[in-house]
Amino acid sequence: MSLLTSVLFHSGLMCARAAQVFNALAAGTVTRANLRAGIARDWEGFNALPEEVYGGLLPWEHALLDRVIRPGGRVLVVGSGTGREVIALAERGQEVVGIDPSGPAVTAAAGFLAERGVVATMRQGFYEDADIPGPFDVVFFSHRCYSLIPGSAARIAVLAKARASLNPGGRIAVSYLTGRGVRPILTRLMRLTSALTRTDLRAEPGDDFYRVAESAPYFSFEHCFAPGEFETEARAAGLHAEVQEDRGCPAAILSVPAAATAARSAAP
Predict the structure, then answer these.
(1) Signed CA dihedral, 148, 150, 156, 158: sign only
(2) What are the angstrom distances between the C-alpha of 166 and each of 83, 135, 137, 139?
(3) Is 107 helix (H, G, I), strand (E, B) or coil?
(4) Which of 2-6, 126-130, 138-142, 155-159 has the weakest average pLDDT?
(5) Spatial separation of the C-alpha atoms in residues 170 and 163, rounded to whole Å
(6) How far is 56 from 33, CA to CA, in rounded Å?
(7) Which whole number is the average pLDDT over 192-216?
(8) pLDDT > 50? residue 256
(9) Beta bridge partners of 254
(10) What pLDDT was estimated at residue 220?
(11) Centroid of chain to Cα 150
């Protein structure tokens, strides 16, 4: 290897590391509203083709939902996107409500539903903000979308909201990402700039704020769960993980513990 090759190679490594540092510093200045806009923008074109939408449930989704779906049940799909899960469940005889923050995705879903001759209700917005009349037999968090909610406290609140919307004996089906997220030093840099700029977000271990555009909103987000972390959030929301499996995607079925169900039934 020539000296020039070595110099250029290591210069590239230094530039790449510097880019990571500056991206982390920039991510620390992002507000929750900005980040949510970036998340919606990041996913608005996902499953945009008819063959993707009409492809039906993925194998792991079948395995998970077949445990909880009953004929004629009422299902809420959180993060419904362009309607893949909504159409598949409605065609199985479910009464389905879908919600997604992306306007283009919701508009596309309405078109696919009409083309397919399927009836379902589509709503635009973030589930944590939306008033969606229940109750539901199943609340299904679409593929990985639980990991797209920034902040453990916010995720716990979302699970608690889903729990409150369940029929007696209802279930919550969730998939999520696992891993380590970005390097801890980058998380600390994000937290530093958040504190200095007094934004309403603080990066947590496992978070990854990644750049999706050259213009605002610049960043999207995902959270990678460490072992035991998802179960801790479920318990904090008053839920029990009665099924956990990984058939290509870590997923769980959550239920209200029997003691809590009995107490709710006995309440005046």
Answers:
(1) negative
(2) 22, 5, 6, 8
(3) helix
(4) 2-6
(5) 8
(6) 32
(7) 92
(8) yes
(9) 172, 241
(10) 94
(11) 9
The residue assigned the tokens 């490594």 is 13
3 state DSSP class of 206: coil
- The mean pLDDT of 2-23, rounded to a whole number, is 86
- Taking each helix axis from N to C end, the angle separating 229-236 and 152-164, rounded to the nearest 10 degrees, works out to 50
Indicate whether 4 pLDDT > 90.
no
CA distance 54 to 107: 16
**In this predicted structure, what is the pLDDT of residue 266?**
45
Output the pTM of the full model.
Answer: 0.90
Please, are residues 265 and 168 in contact by the beta-carbon 8 Å criterion? yes
Single out the residue of 71, 51, 58 nearest to residue 115, CA to CA. 51
Q: 121: closest CA among 171, 129, 134, 145? A: 134
CA gap 64, 67 in Å, rounded = 6
The structure tokens 């539901």 sit at: 136
Mean pLDDT lowest for which of 57-66, 81-90, 137-146, 258-267?
Answer: 258-267
Region 61-68: what's the mean pLDDT?
A: 92
In DSSP notation, 1-69 reads --HHHHHHHHHHHHHHHHHHHHHHHHHTT--HHHHHHHHHHHHTTTT-SHHHHTT---HHHHHHHTTT-
CATH number, domain 18-266: 3.40.50.150
Rounded Cα gap, residues 262 and 192, in angstroms: 46
> Can you tell me the distance from the alpha carbon of 177 to that of 147, in angstroms, rounded to the nearest whole number?
6
